[in-house]
Fold this sequence. Notes:
Blueprint: E1 15-16, E2 19-20, E3 25-30, H1 33-45, E4 53-56, H2 58-70, H3 74-86, H4 89-101, E5 105-110, H5 114-124, E6 131-135, E7 140-142
Antiparallel strand pairs: 1-2, 3-5, 3-6, 4-5, 6-7
Helix pairs in contact: 2-4
Amino acid sequence: MQDFSGRDFFKGSDTSFGIFYPADYLIAVLDSNEAAKKGKDILLSAGYSEDEVAAVPNNYVISDIEKSKNDASFLTRIRQKFSLGMGTEGLYWEKDLEWAKEGAGFLAIYCPTHHEAKRVQRLLTHENPKNMRRYAAMAIEKLS
């Protein structure tokens, strides 16, 4: 799998309450890194560009989440616990870590509108995503 460029891929802010929250992006969780690469190829064939879609390997997801937890300041840890308690992005964060440890692969797609999210959902439906969600400005839109 081609190397993922890391957090630089996400244009703008990518955290909320000390937890990953890439506004205007859709995250799809697939069965494996290979499935994520296949999903990326499907989206590239449908007209997306390399700077709009990235296959994110599970080892990156594990490392990023664990680093965010371990290196968090006291205040950030309070924010993280608050997010977990509210049932928002913190729950996805925990579930993503679990899926990554089980071998899941991830896709990140620039997706600024609900209409675009539905297009991505249609394109990836045959890949049977475990989860797809779009991070809007004020809410997470669950797609599967």
